Amino acid sequence: MKDTLERIRREALAKMEESMDMDHLNEIRVAYLGKKGELTQVLKGMRNVPPEERPQVGQMVNETRAALEAKLEETKAALAAKQRELQMQAEKIDVTLPAKKNKVGHRHPNTIALDEVERIFVGMGYEVAEGPEVEYDYYNFEALNIPANHPAKDEQDTFYITKDILLRTQTSPVQVRVMEKKKPPIRMIAPGRVFRADEVDATHSPSFHQIEGLVVDKNITFADLKGTLGEFARELFGEGTQVKFRPHHFPFTEPSAEMDVTCFKCGGKGCRMCKGEGWIEILGCGMVHPKVLKMCGIDPEEYSGFAFGVGLERIALLKYEIDDMRLLYENDIRFLQQF
Ligand code: DAH
Predict the structure, then answer these.
(1) Whose CA is nearest to atom 5 of ligand 1?
(2) How far is the CA of 1 from the centre of ligand 1 (A)?
(3) Tens of pLDDT along 59-107?
(4) Partners of 135 in beta bridges
(5) Which atom of ligand 1 is least distant from the CA of 194?
(6) Taking the alpha carbons of 21, 23, 25, 28 in that order, is the dihedral positive or negative?
(7) How far apart are CA 304 and CA 294, in angstroms?
(8) Looking at ligand 1, which residue's alpha carbon is closest to its atom 2?
(9) pLDDT in the model for residue 23
(10) Residues whose CB falls within 8 Å of the CB of residue 210, separated by 6 or more in sequence, listed in order
């Protein structure tokens, strides 16, 4: 009996020592400590042991069981630790691996140009206003001193929803909307989409963008207009830029002018960019017509103002030397990525 216990102890401990995984370890446990295990069998054989030897053998059996159980726990813990270690190895993340780059979009040249124009005017204390793209004939024409049979209406033909409601042809109606709501002093710009019955070509589109500007206060003169728009041109195109005002006609301003800037490419000598002229036209402007002020409820005897309108696409095309306006609307990523 003693020998058997010695053997069981030796064999079981050796097997546990060599066991490779939990399943195997469990098999060993069942084989020795299980209900039909060898040690249990020995215990069952106790009744054949002479009574005087029983205490001694009983103690040995207990010691053997205790030794096996202790080794079992120890091995279990070692195997679990080994398994965890292996799992950690397998799940190791290489943080030095370069990350997958997400493709980030680009701002559209129109957006970049608009942000730049807004930055300049906001810096001069202007507010940014907005008006509807679907507009009343009254705001788009009538209140801007363009009555029903005025020839200017012919140049700005558009899509009519009803006789009185149309797609606005210019951002100038926002001037009227702002003056109706706000008393002077007014300093605002109003960017937005406008519509015309124009054929698509390199410089025309039936839908494009303008930025309107309006200043109304006491004692506003043409000198304020010149100073402001000159500063705008220098900010936008560079320090050395010069401006020139050519007389023009707009029904809602008097006097009216178009403003040219010296070509930022050749500095005024004449090149392909400015078609050899040295000057590039960039906006229309003028002193707000007294009739317009009056229609908006502002007394032209007390207040005066100036206004201007810039084509956003024109600025974008010039600034980025793009020679065809259609490129701005094709949404070709190869084009847009260049800005
Ligand atoms: N609305 C004019 C156009 O579309 C541009 C313009 C000219 C706006 C003179 C103005 C201005 O505010 O004073 O052709």
Answers:
(1) 309
(2) 115
(3) 888 888 888 888 888 888 888 888 899 999 988 888 888 888 888 778 8
(4) 166
(5) 4
(6) negative
(7) 11
(8) 309
(9) 87
(10) 170, 171, 191, 192, 194, 309, 310, 311, 312
Measured from the Cα of 288, ligand 1's closest atom is 13
For CA atoms 144, 146, 152, 155, the dihedral sign is: positive
Q: How far apart are CA 107 and CA 180, in angstroms?
A: 34
Cβ atoms within 10 Å, residue 223: 9
Q: Measured between alpha carbons, how far is residue 90 from residues 21, 79, 108 in Å?
A: 17, 16, 46
Query: Would you tell me how many other CB atoms lie within 10 Å of the CB of residue 199?
Result: 8
Residues with CB under 6 A from ligand 1: 170, 172, 212, 250, 253, 284-286, 307-309
Closest CA to 212 of 248, 234, 235, 186: 186
**Phi, psi angles (nearest 5°) of residue 44:** -65, -30
Which atom of ligand 1 is found nearest the CA of 212? Answer: 12
Alpha carbon 166 to chain centroid, angstroms: 32
Q: Hey, CA dihedral for 42, 47, 49, 53, is it positive or negative?
A: positive
Which residue's CA is the closest to the ligand 1 atom numbered 3? 170
- Asked if residue 15 lies in contact with residue 70, where contact means CB atoms within 8 angstroms, the answer is no
Specify the length of the chain in residues.
Answer: 339
The rounded Å distance from CA 99 to ligand 1 centre is 51
Q: Classify residue 187 by its DSSP letter.
A: E
Angle, helices 22-33 vs 2-18, to 10°: value is 170
Task: Please tell me the distance between residue 299's alpha carbon and the centre of ligand 1 in angstroms.
Answer: 22
Q: Which residues pair with 328 in a beta bridge?
A: none
Is the Cβ–Cβ distance between 198 and 167 less than 8 Å?
Answer: no
Q: Of 93-107, 126-140, 159-173, which gets the smallest average pLDDT?
A: 93-107
- Tell me: the pLDDT tens digits for 260-315? 999 888 888 988 888 899 999 999 999 999 999 999 999 999 999 999 999 999 99
Ligand 1 centroid to residue 152 C-alpha, Å: 12
